[in-house]
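Incident review: delayed structure delivery

Summary: a single-chain prediction request sat in the queue longer than the usual turnaround. Root cause was a stuck worker, restarted by the on-call engineer. No data loss occurred. The affected request and its eventual output are reproduced below so the record is complete for anyone auditing the incident later.

Affected input:
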Amino acid sequence: MSFERPVEFLRIRNNNNQDFSFDYHYCHRKEDHSKSHTAELEISISDPTVLKKILESLDFKEIATVDKTREVWECSDFEVVLDFVQELGYFMEIEAKKDLGGIDQTRKACHTFLKELNIQHSGFSTQGYLSSLLEKRK
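Output delivered after worker restart:
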């Protein structure tokens, strides 16, 4: 039985109970069904409880909560994120802060930046935390 990864989803993000956002994510897939990149739209919200009630009244269902702690570092054209995700462990994400010549060139630049940092890693993930968490729970 294969696991179906979400292609699009909504998220209510809680940033240390200080600020909240509502996000729409659409995961673009390659022909082999691995994730190419994700388009994200985000707006600030003041009351996540009310938004959650609105979504529930529209028959949206909560599928998971991703509980993580995060450190963010900025360096030149890149953002380096160090995450600890409950149930999954530690992750590092490198994200370009701007388009560096299209998706493939931007990905290549991120890989080059990782090599320049001399970071040893166990591989690259083509799925997000939500998909990883749902897959682990199956």
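Verification: Residues 108 and 130 are 24 Å apart (CA to CA).
Action items: add queue-age alerting; document worker restart procedure.
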